[in-house]
Structures are given as structure tokens and as C-alpha cells.
Amino acid sequence: MKKVFRPYYLSVAFALALASCGPAKIIPTPVENIDKMPLKTAPLKEKDLKRWSHLDLVKDTVPGMSVDKAYAELLKGKKGQKVIVGIVDSGVDINHEDLKAVIWTNPKEIAGNNIDDDKNGYVDDIHGWNFLGDAVHEQLELTRIVKKGPSAPDYEKAKAALEKEIQDLQGNKQQLDFILKAEKTIKDHLKKDSFTLEEVKAIQSDDTNVKQAKAMFTQILSGTSKADFDKEIVDFKDYVYGQLDYNLNVNFDGRKIVGDNPDDINDTKYGNNNVIGPEPKEAKHGTHVAGIVAQVRGNKLGGDGVTNNALIMAVRAVPNGDEYDKDIALGIRYAGDNGAVKVSPWWLVASYGVITVGELCLSPMGLSFVSKLSPARITALMMGGFFLANSVGNKLSGILASTWYSYDNKMNYFLVNFALLIFATLLGASMLKRLNKIMKDQGH
Q: 232 Cβ partners below 8 Å, 6+ apart?
């Protein structure tokens, strides 16, 4: 689900809370408990505010992801390979100045001819696909459950949660309407849409509503500018009314405009190629994610992406509300079928499966071996040696894993691992005959 805005101003005096919310100052997280590292207590510089996440805790005293350090030390002199990254999100602004150079273009599709040239089922999918069509807003899943009626699973639980959400939002709506009414009162009195703290303070009136509005906005504008207030109040208004009008409204049907059956995974002929979406501002989350991944590095436009070897494929599947499983599934399949890097979850299952089998079977068997073969007087010592051997093995595994970045062709990394596995297997097999003899001699 794409959350548009989560309000911070839930006190009775919403305006007073706003008054304290000036431009945010990002101060690095204190690290006094981390090995006596030097602390950074001053506010970050403007250039670091844009890219703090790329900095390093040790080098820059900023708890970032150490991306710059990785480029300088691990990746220096290495040549990367372009990969396609599918951003399955709210849409991506493919015209953004810091992204347009890294947007994927379908090489098998001819733009604007209204023909599915690559025969993948999507007409003119030049930069990706929009599985939401012209839809923008959606219900929450709990709202959909309530809409289906008492026969739906978890109906009573969803109904109770929905009623609570609506009740909580009514308080927010009351606060919001109070602020908006006060703002309108000031505008009407001054006969202008924008005003300053000085103009508000200069207001003279016996009207009770004007006096209340003056007091409120004197507090607000003492702590923030009118421009910042306008932005905050618009975001808050979008959140409150978006929830009440769309997300929590059982009578709203955001899917009708799409024209498909969202519960039928085989109904795939829907959507369009407008990967930004009908309302560009609603694509800001997907655009933000795309920027984190691959916005052009070093061009002095905003921040930098983590990688300089990615192309962004835009897949719009997340509305303002809860997404449908069908859209996400088809979006992932679309990205995979059209070149985005994909990793089978079976690799994860298999990897953890091997580790689990080793922990559950091999380790106890090894301990049993040690206890049976060791002379009674040094059994404890031999068990310590067994655990030491395990530790050394884990250390060697870590060293081996760290060589991943030194392989331009990752297939060679897996071949080396496979060769080491075969060597270890043959070494163990060569020792079995001698071990069996020792076991028999010991009477086991």
C-alpha cells in the first residue's frame, strides 16, 4: 500500500503543533556506544543532506550505507554489467531530469504504432507497463472485506477495524476543517490568499472568529513560513480526505475504470503504457525508489543512485490504497519476462535448506563421532577442537563470500565453490576407510 501522508499533528491544538515544525534538520544518529568513534554533532551540509545514505560511519561519522566507500575500495577499477531493475510501485516519472538517462527502453517495441511488436501481450510497452490504467485511488483490503458482506472471511474483525479507523479520522477531519476555516477567515479579512506573520499580527477586529484565527496563525507563522504551512496542510488534507473518500469508503469503486476482474489472474488484457500514471504527483513514491536505485551519479542534480549500472523498468501496480495481488504478480512476471534481473526463491530455500540440514544432522553426528573416538580423559578437549574447527570453517566461508565482487563473471564464483565442495567430499571419502578401522578397533 502506498501511504500518501501520515499526520504528526494529532493534538487538540493542531495549529500549535504545526507552529513548531520548521524545516527538518537532519543530525546524524549518536554513536557514542560504538567503539568510541568520533561524533558528528553539527548539522550536515546541504550536499550531505542529499546523499547522507551514501556516507560511511567510520570515514564520515554518518551512519549511511557506505556506498561511496564501496565504489572507492571494493569496485575501483572493476567494470560492471548493465542490469534491468523493475520498479513495481506507484509509477515512475520517466521524464525526471535525474532519471531519464537511465530509463529502460524496450528494444523489441516500436513506439506509437499501436502494435504489440514483441508479442508479449502489451501494446507499445516502451518503458514498462501500467497495470492500473487510469485508476488512482483504491480501497483498503479491510474495506473490501466489509463491502463483500457478512459472508466474507474475517468480516466482523474487518468491520470493527474499519469503524475504528473512520472514528479516529473524524477527529483529524475536525482539526483539519478547523484550521482550513481559520485560514479562510484570515484570507477573507485580508482579501488576499497569501499573508505574512506581520500582516496577521496587524489585524484589528472585534469579530470573535477573526480573533481566533489571528491567534492561531500568529502561533503557526511564528514557527514556520506560510509556504511550508501550505505544503503541510495540503499533505494532511490529501491524507484525511483520501482515507475517508476512497480508502475507507465501502461505496467507492476504484477498479471500475480499469475494466478487468481483479480476482481473475488470467484476465491480463488491461492497463496501458502510461507508466507515470494519470496524476504525476501520485508517482512520487515509485520515482523516489527508482532514484535510490539508479539516479545518475555525480551529475550534481539532487542525490546519487546506489548503482551506475542499472536501467529502470517502470511497472505501475500500487495505487493510493491497497494494491491487488493480481497486479503485483503480473507486474513481477512482466518485469522478469522482459529482462529485469530475477532470482528464483528456490535458491533461497535451497541455501537455507542445506544450512539447516547441516545444523540438524551433521553437527550432532560430528559431536557423536568426537565423543566416541576420543580417549575419555581428553573428550572435552576434543569437543573444543570440534567447535574450533567449525569456527575456522565459518571464517573461511566468510572469506570466500567476500571474493564475490572480485569476479566479473559470477559463474566462475559458483564454479570455485563447486570445486571446493568436490575437493572436500573426496577428502572426506578418502578418510572413511581409516575412520571405520579406528571405530572397529575402539569397539564401536
A: 9, 18, 21, 224
Give bridge partners of residue 316 from the DSSP assignment: 89, 130
pLDDT per residue as tens digits for the range 147-181: 999 999 999 999 999 999 999 999 899 999 999 99
List, in sequence order, every residue forming a beta bridge with 89; answer none if it has no partner.
316
Give residue for cell 570455485. Answer: 416
84's enclosing H/E stretch is strand 83-89
pLDDT at 170: 92
> SS3 for 88?
strand
Work out the pLDDT band at 189, boundaries 50, 70, 90: very high
Q: Identify the CA nearest to 314 among candidates 345, 343, 293, 344.
A: 293
Can you tell me the distance from the alpha carbon of 413 to that of 408, in angstroms, rounded to the nearest whole number?
A: 9
Amino acid at 323: E
Q: Which three cell numbers stand for residue 8?
A: 504528526
Smallest Cα–Cα separation from 85: which of 343, 340, 291? 340
Question: pTM of this prediction?
Answer: 0.68
Listed by start position, the domains of the chain span 65-138+257-337, 141-247, 345-441
Class in CATH terms, 65-138+257-337: alpha beta
* Alpha carbon distance 70, 76 (integer Å): 8
